Amino acid sequence: MTSSTDLAMLEPLRIDGAVAVVTGGASGIGRALTRALIGGGARVVIADIESEALATTVEELDPGHAGAVVGHRTDVTDEESVSALADAVWDRFGRCDLLFLNAGVTSGGGGWIWDQEPNDWRWCFGVNVFGTAIGVSTFVPRMLADGHRGHVVVTSSKDGGVAPVPHASVYAASKAALSGLTESLQHQLVETGSAVRASVFYPSGGLLDTGLYSAARNRPTHLARVAPGRGSMSFTQLVERVTEATGAPPPIADLDDLAAFVLAGVERGDFVIARDLDVSADVLHERADAIGRAELPPRNRLKM
User: Fold this and answer.
1) Do 44 and 69 form a contact (C-beta atoms < 8 A)?
2) Per-residue pLDDT tens digits for 130-174
3) Which residues form the catalytic set?
4) 98 pairs with which residues across the strands?
């Protein structure tokens, strides 16, 4: 059973001098995490499926190619690709201290759950759940074998991780799976007496300017939808849609501030890294009470 005593027995994990791997690191939260890690003195390997975005990000964040950032094209849904990433990390740096399993997509279907197609589930769960599981099964055994302090951060979402937003059913289900996966991982890491720990990260603070909304650009043709779905949209289009629906511009999250918040949580050894946890706790209490009455639990109240 995880306890504060278990965590206190470990030395604090320092960002300065650490070797970090960030999946989905060429854009959005992953890019902000990379920037924060470099600022904290870490060396970073960015794993991303988009070669052009990967090269651009490495050039921007390590313009002199001093070695602070290395890019490695990776398909997180493919075991051989992730194994090649791990080989490259250990060949170059000899270890991995921080593993950010951050790559994620939406299903592209949306709406009624009965209108979701099998490929929506295969695509979303393939990246979000199987991609994370492959990352864990590939990296964690090597990190454990090294025997030194390490940390795994899994990017989930309060949409599913705390309670679902019903009309994003596939995405919410995948993120609920990630929260359960990370809890199990943390319990087992403590149980085995290892020096590796895990955290689940729930992004928040407003709309997130990431590539999530246009993730279909990377969707394989063999997993394409048959019927039209919601389709991709740019972040600007999303802001316009929310503004039109609510009558006011939505708050926009500061990704650099969010990344700094994540690293601070890692250094403290927090298992849950999220803002507004009091609101989440209220929702979870309401859900527990409803379940205790054999009733439908309330949906998520996302706070931007």
Assistant:
1) yes
2) 999 999 999 999 999 999 999 999 999 999 999 998 888 999 999
3) 171
4) 20, 151
Mention every residue, 6+ apart, whose C-beta is less than 8 A from residue 104.
24, 127, 128, 155, 212, 215
Torsion, Cα of 48, 52, 58, 59 (10° steps): 180
**Token pair of 253 as six digits:** 């999250």
Q: Is 258 helix (H, G, I), strand (E, B) or coil?
A: helix
Closest CA to 107 of 233, 229, 234, 238: 229
Reply yes or no on domain 4-292 having CATH 3.40.50.720: yes
Average pLDDT value for residue range 48-53: 95
pTM beyond 0.90, yes or no:
yes
Count of residues in the chain: 304
**Residue type, position 106, single letter:** T
Calpha distance 169→177 (Å, rounded): 12
